[in-house]
Design goal:
Elements lengths: L1 H29 L8 E7 L10 E4 L2 E12 L2 E8 L16 E2 L4 E2 L1
Length: 108
Amino acid sequence: MRSRTIREGSVGLLILVGLAVFVGLVLWIRGLRVGNRSYEFTVGFPNVAGMKEGATVRYRGVDVGKITKINATTNGVDVTIEIASANLVIPRNAVIEANQSGLIGETS
């Protein structure tokens, strides 16, 4: 009787560990960073000049995020930017530019 209880407990523990690994993989694949919050803001540009979703965003020469969405509007283009670290504070009066990085023309 005791060996049956140990066996059932082992099976239950194995199922819980498997479920935890599965949830961890799903979160990892979706890019969810637990404990490391990010934030988004939208910047208006007259044109996108080669920007693409997923392009790197740099602040003072350091990669800090990526472009998550580009929407055309009647007055130009709204670009949504995700900053990976919630601890990084970008001032409201910061000048935001689109610059070409490299010879092949990737815009950041």
